[in-house]
# Entry
Amino acid sequence: MIRRMFILGAIALLGFGVLAPAAHAQYPPFTPGASVSDSTVSSGDTVTVTVTCDVPAGTDIPGFLDGNDGGSGGAAADGTASVDVVIPGSPGPHQITNSCNTAVLTITIAGATAGNLPRTGTDNSLPLAKIAIVLIAAGGLLIVVARDRRSKNATA
# Structure
């Protein structure tokens, strides 16, 4: 009798172990993250940062722009929060982070950039050097001619 109860107990445990699904299998895995509405903005624009965290509904989630306070938003029941961040600053890349996960978003503030400078010279100065040599030779020739005239006028 004890033997039968032991065998039935072992079969029941084996049945529960094989037939019972894992508890975590009924929930999709949680993946924290963040996204931004626009990654290229102008200074003074506002972007919406959507953050996904494993926090209770109503939790205040602050966002940061280059480490400075950028605004905050309350978490919804599904763990998402939307934060409107005003983008001040100089042109170039900047980072948006939040306090509930390690997501780092990079945005670029468009603005006046140092483009190509106007061309103010030449890459080849040889023609200018040739012109300078000809002008120096012409000036020397004029001096010789002027001396000849002066010496002819002095003897006459």
